[in-house]
Design a protein that fits this description.
about 475 residues; Alpha-D-Glucose-1,6-Bisphosphate, Chain A, domain 3; 3 domains; binds magnesium ion; 15 helices; alpha/beta; TATA-Binding Protein
Length: about 475
């Protein structure tokens, strides 16, 4: 395989690329070495990885880089991303590295860097590491200062025990829920089945053996990848279906009727149940999140603060505002007094906790929330022109959208509200395309807004592309 000379750079979630093409052991070693240079010799760093075929290779290279830069490494093996965050705090380490490509296809891998409080590096911190890598500074320490290496066993079990300590275990156990669990062969295989059995769930398992090729299903828990799970929930008359992504920081839910549940609704349900008696508290979420979260917040007297897309943006804003709960529309739940990481397994535990306390099936709990129709689309753009026009496209879309809007938000792309209905257009950080999101209270309005959003975005791309063509 030929190596891509254009090294991948840090995006919204660390470095990502295809193993041995974009993301090589050499590059991983460089990241480890520069992390050591950034933290300083003698610091302690926890390293975890997911189940991908290339993860051991990449993690070993990162570890070599850290050791050669004088950091002491604690290798916690295959863990979920939230368990890495948990381990950094528990082991009182100075930082962490997670080797994972989350929900990307099996040939991909990635490296994410973590702070001592268990929060992912901010975009500015990622930029600093990138700058160190670009400068090619030599952080190698002398032979007698090379870091020490230690394997730490049992983190997934400690993590499961810590979660069980946070909820009313007896209430959930007494219900002995029938649950279908789909780990998709990812890192959750080592913790999620144990946790659910600890909650006395009668478990049907799919993909709960680690599989770095993700042969059972694709690692992204989108509805089109979960048909087997939906069928199994129905055929086993289960109470709940749970599907984790590859590194366990996101989870999708299937209700007892076999229906996929929108992630926003789970976020709203969790906020409703855990912030109901805490008026004045804050929820932080991204611009993509549904109005259902605002509806719930209004009902219980809680404030919603929006951020650009990306886990580090949500975490930073949570710290700034003192928010109790943060999250993304795809159920990247973050709970302030647990870990500063998006959580898939803890989210699943909270859903079971709510079902047990309310003694009602999931579909019934969700039926009390307002319903919104949603569309998630994309508009492609010529890859050569895209970087030249992406910001101007957003500006022109803002000028061309109907002016009778009630609110406009420009922190990430452009989001325009018409009452509770809205359009969001944002440039993708990874591909030459614009993501178009539309939400409306009914199907007719959704179709109307979809047409407006697509026409406006395509019109702006065409107008600017012609200008660029004339200049070239
Ligand atoms: Mg993930």
């Amino acid at each position: 395989m030929s190596v891509n000379p254009l090294k991948p750079s840090f995006g919204t979630a660390g470095i990502r690329g295809i193993a041995n093409r974009d993301l090589t052991p050499q590059l991983a070693l460089q990241v480890g070495l520069c992390m050591a240079g950034y933290l300083g010799s003698g610091k302690r760093v926890v390293v975890g990885r997911d189940t991908r075929v290339s993860s051991e290779m990449i993690a070993t290279a990162v570890i070599s880089g850290l050791l050669s830069g004088g950091c002491n490494v604690e290798d916690i093996g295959v863990v979920t991303t939230p368990a890495l965050s948990f381990a950094i705090k528990m082991l009182k380490a100075d930082g962490g590295v997670m080797v994972t490509a989350s929900h990307n296809p099996p040939e991909w891998n990635g490296i994410k860097l973590w702070n001592r409080d268990g929060a992912i590096f901010t975009r500015n911190q990622d930029r600093e590491i990138e700058e160190l890598m670009r400068k090619g500074v030599d952080y190698y320490v002398s032979w007698n200062s090379i870091g020490s290496f230690r394997r730490v066993e049992g983190i997934p079990d400690m993590y499961v025990r810590a979660i069980l300590n946070r909820i009313d275990v007896d209430a959930v156990r007494s219900r002995s829920y029938r649950v279908v669990l789909d780990c998709g062969g990812g890192a959750t295989c080592f913790s999620s089945p144990k946790l659910l059995r600890g909650l006395n769930c009668r478990l049907t398992t799919l993909g709960c053996e680690p599989d770095g090729f993700f042969r059972m299903r694709k690692p992204e828990p989108r509805p089109e990848n979960l048909s087997k799970l939906m069928e199994t929930v129905k055929s086993t008359s289960s109470d709940l279906g749970i599907a984790h992504d590859g590194d366990g920081d996101r989870t999708s839910f299937i209700d007892e009727n076999g229906n996929y549940v929108q992630g926003d609704k789970i976020l709203a349900l969790i906020c409703l149940n855990y912030l109901r008696n805490k008026p004045g508290s804050v929820i932080v979420t991204t611009v993509i999140t549904s109005s259902v979260v605002f509806d719930v917040a209004e009902k219980i007297g809680v404030k919603v603060v929006l951020t650009p897309v990306g886990e580090s943006c949500v975490v930073e804003k949570m710290k700034e505002t003192g928010a109790e709960i943060g999250g993304e529309e795809n159920i990247g739940l973050i709970v302030r007094d647990w870990v500063w990481s998006r959580e898939g397994i803890y989210a699943a535990t909270l859903v079971l906790d709510i079902m047990a306390r309310e003694k009602r099936p999931l579909s019934q709990l969700l039926s009390e929330l307002p319903n919104y129709e949603q569309a998630k689309l994309s508009v492609k753009c010529d890859g050569n022109i895209y970087p030249l026009i992406k910001h101007d496209v957003i500006r022109i879309v803002g000028e061309m959208l109907p002016r009778d809007y009630d609110n406009i938000i420009t922190i990430d792309g452009i989001k325009v509200y018409y009452g509770r209905n809205w359009i969001l257009v944002r440039p993708s950080g990874t591909e030459p395309l614009f993501r178009v999101f539309v939400e409306a209270e009914d199907k007719t309005t959704l179709e109307k807004l979809k047409r407006v959003a697509l026409d406006t975005t395509m019109g702006a791309i065409q107008e600017l592309s012609e200008k660029v063509d004339n200049r070239l």
